[in-house]
Amino acid sequence: MALTGRAALIAALASVPVGIWDPSWTGILAVNAPLAAACACDFALAAPVRRLGLTRSGDTSARLGDTADVTLTVTNPSGRPLRARLRDAWPPSSWQPGTETAASRHSLTVPVGERRRVTTRLRPTRRGDRQADRITIRSYGPLGLLTRQGTHRVPWTVRVLPPFTSRKHLPSKLSRLRELDGRTSVLTRGEGTEFDSLREYVPGDDTRSIDWRATARHSTVAVRTWRPERDRHILLVLDTGRTSAGRVGDAPRLDASMDAALLLAALASRAGDRVDLLAYDRRVRALLQGRTAGDLLPSLVNAMASLEPELVETDARGLTATALRSAPRRSLIVLFTTLDAAPIEEGLLPVLPQLTQRHTVLVASVADPHISAMAEARGHTDAVYEAAAAAQAQSERRHIADQLRRHGVTVVDATPDELPPALADAYLELKAAGRL
């Protein structure tokens, strides 16, 4: 039994014998008896909490930044109407800071034998699974003097998916892909192109693309068009080691890598290529293979949702061996990792030839825009020192990128906002050059 603030105040005042003419206990009891009877009656008329029936329904997933509505149905099987305050508890990251109280607390009245629904609107601030905690219900009597209180556990999980903010770039990249499919052989010809069709010659076409046999059979000059080969294999490798935990802006580097990976996967699947995913640090954190184009994106965001950076050094040899097992034939391996000197020089470079010997390798790295801002700072002594430190950091990244390029690796180093479109462009350039 819990006393509300009003009931506690009344009980406290009633227990003080000030202003009572008869100082005997008999007089005090005589004065308190009506109040005690009112409290007892109020408590007896409050609906019991333990017997309530509770079930959940609603959203089971939401993208980061969106809302998820979870509905709680409360059934009152008792013979007394329920007047209650309800708190639906979830982890703190289920709401924006400062909004939890308003979003999780509800008032409801449930007549005898009926049910009512209350909806808790979540707006998660982190990826991953958000699991419902306890439901606390405080049942009031008609006077609101005393309450019954109890807790229930009704399990429910909302999976918070990556937001895929780079989706806005997809239409322009698809347009470029269609343009690539229609280019002439002089622009796209390579070991990875296929003959597509014949069309009429237009001024500006390369004369080497003219099909003279077809021209002889028609009254117009015909040229051959080529399209990049389809059904290529792409393996997206997310490095989930300690370097992926570094925050760039408001999010870890891993989140920015995921966003770029999703745009590339969407583009590649539209181009007819097969896309797999591997997340690795010292062991496999996620492995997704053999998904169809229609099922690829939902499967990717679901696999990425629960990934978190691990505060361990990535095992480059183990990552390489796992990638080679996951890509048995020639593939494009896109490695999302850092360009920091120590992890690359001591970890990746010694085992890189194992990858480049059999596959085309592309390294995508998230750059910190704050470093660029520091490099341009001037005006006072601290700013000059910061600019010097930023310039040194940028020089080291360029040096590492050059080392990777000497091994035949394509490197994309860009800020979180610029990395997805830059990576998509790099993929299209590889495809146009026939290197897939």
Short overview:
The chain is 37% helix and 27% strand. It contains 14 helices and 21 strands.
What key attributes describe this structure?
single chain; 436 residues; alpha/beta; 6-stranded mixed beta sheet; 5-stranded antiparallel beta sheet; 21 strands; 27% strand
Q: Report the sheet with the most strands, covering strand number, pairing sense and barrel closure.
A: 6 strands, mixed
Oligomeric status: single chain
Kindly provide the radius of gyration, computed on alpha-carbon positions and rounded to a whole number of angstroms: 33 Å
What's the arrangement of strands in the largest beta sheet?
Answer: 18-17-14-19-20-21
Strand content: 25-35%
Count of DSSP helices? 14
Please mark out the parts with pLDDT under 50 across 5 or more consecutive residues, or reply none.
Answer: 16-26, 184-193
The pLDDT mean sits at 85
The proportion of residues forming helix, as a percent range, comes to: 25-40%
Determine the structural class based on helices, strands and strand pairing: alpha/beta
User: What is the overall shape?
Assistant: elongated
The separation of the N and C termini measures 71 Å
Number of strands: 21
Secondary-structure blueprint of this entry?
Layout: E1 2-3, H1 5-14, H2 25-45, E2 53-58, E3 61-63, E4 68-75, E5 82-88, H3 100-104, E6 105-110, E7 115-122, E8 128-131, E9 134-140, E10 146-153, E11 157-161, H4 170-181, H5 185-188, E12 193-200, H6 212-217, E13 222-228, E14 233-239, E15 247-248, E16 251-252, H7 253-270, E17 274-280, E18 284-288, H8 293-305, H9 316-326, E19 332-336, H10 341-348, H11 352-356, E20 360-366, H12 369-375, H13 381-406, E21 410-414, H14 419-432
Parallel strand pairs: 3-11, 14-17, 14-19, 19-20, 20-21
Antiparallel strand pairs: 1-10, 2-4, 4-7, 5-6, 5-9, 8-11, 9-10, 12-13, 15-16, 17-18
Helix pairs in contact: 4-7, 4-14, 7-8, 7-14, 12-13
